[in-house]
Structures are given as C-alpha cells and as structure tokens.
Amino acid sequence: MGRIVVITGATSGYGLAAAKKFKENGDTVIVASRNAEKVKQTVDQYSFDCGFSVDVTSYSQWLELKDYVIDKFGKIDLLVNNAGGGVAIKETTELEPAEIDHILKLNLNSVIYGSKLFGTVMKHQRSGMIINISSVCARHCWGGWSVYAAAKAGVLNFTKGLYVELQPYHVRATCIIPAAASTGFQKGAGIDAVEESLSAEDIANAVFYAANQPEGAVVEEMTVWGTSQRVEPL
C-alpha cells in the first residue's frame, strides 16, 4: 500500500505482529522500541525497512524519532502508539511514587507526546492517521490495576478528543481496546501468564482493519475480546 508507518513497542507482542502485517501488505514500517539491540535484531530478522531506538517516556526522544522519519521519508501516514506496560500490578496503597509516575508516563504521556509531534506533521500534510492502543482496563477494572486502568482510560478519552481536534485537517484517530492476549505483557508486569484465546495477531488484525478504512470513514474505537474470555460488565 506504500504508506509510511511508525509503530512503537514493535519488537514484540501487538507491535511486532502489527509491523509484520503492514509490511506484508506493502507498507514501509519503522520499528520503534526502547532496546536498540532488539530493534536491530527485529529489523534484520524480519527485513523491515528501518528501526529507531526510542524511550517513549522521553519527549526529546520522540522529537528525535519524528525528525528521523520526516528527514528520511518526507511524510508520515500512520502512527501506532502501541508501547506500554503494566510496570507493577499492585494495589494503589502499595505502589511507590516512582512506580505510579512510570505507569502514567509509559502508558499515557507517551501517547500524548507522539500524537502531538506526529499529529502536527499530519495537520500540515492534511492527511494521516493515529491509532492508539488502550486496554479493556479502561472500562473494566480489577484490583491491582487501578493506576494502569487510569492511564488506559486516559488513552481512550484522549483519542476521542484528539480526533475532534484533527478532523478539520483530514487526520483520523482511532483507539483499539484489547483484552488480555498471549504476549510478553504479563512477564513485564510481574504476573503469571494466563492462557487466553486472543493472540497478538488478533490485535494486529484489528489495527490493520482500522487503518484501512476509506478516507470518508473512521473507526472511533474498537474493543477486542477473546471468545473464551469472560466479558466483565461495565
């Protein structure tokens, strides 16, 4: 399809699955993630066009990523804000202030930083799309996930406001809301993995579907549950 696509957290999980999906369909994919060695390994292993090491909690590193993409390709068609993580799944009273700050920076601030910088480019282009990855925790919260849920609820509502702001410039914004899937998320959050019916590829397919709507349509949000998962009531 020939689009310039930036995906954060693209060396594993949803991000890697989405990167592979877009590449298979003819898009130029910039693999962005924090670990420079993993970025290089991923680019080499799957023959992606290029990669960039970025700590998404750092605004200055986002600025470097934006400058790299525009200098190299001259435009941006799609940003997938996928990077995130549980960090520490504990009750609020047990969390250290540094853990709270990191959860919010990794899962919410990062999305706002990327959307601001690449959204500015898209406004000038008068084209583009931003897809932000939230979580069912945004609406269905469990004990120990309260701060993470606050961040992901922020992503959902930020995306709605972002679309209102960017719509006059023909730029779209979509929020994908996944349930638990088989990725490295559980290990990163320090919790046990659970067998679920969703795969990273299921979420990648949802992202790809949203990204391929005709210019006159936008998916505001999409929640993806596995058919064997219990859907908690609102």
TrEMBL record:
| GO terms, molecular function | oxidoreductase activity
Keywords, sorted A to Z: Oxidoreductase
Q: Does the keyword Oxidoreductase apply?
A: yes
InterPro entries (UniProt xref): NAD(P)-bd_dom_sf, SDR_DHRS6-like, SDR_fam
Q: Which domain of life is it from?
A: Bacteria
Q: Does the keyword Oxidoreductase apply?
A: yes
Family assignment?
A: Belongs to the short-chain dehydrogenases/reductases (SDR) family.
Specify the protein name.
SDR family oxidoreductase
Species of origin reads: Congzhengia minquanensis
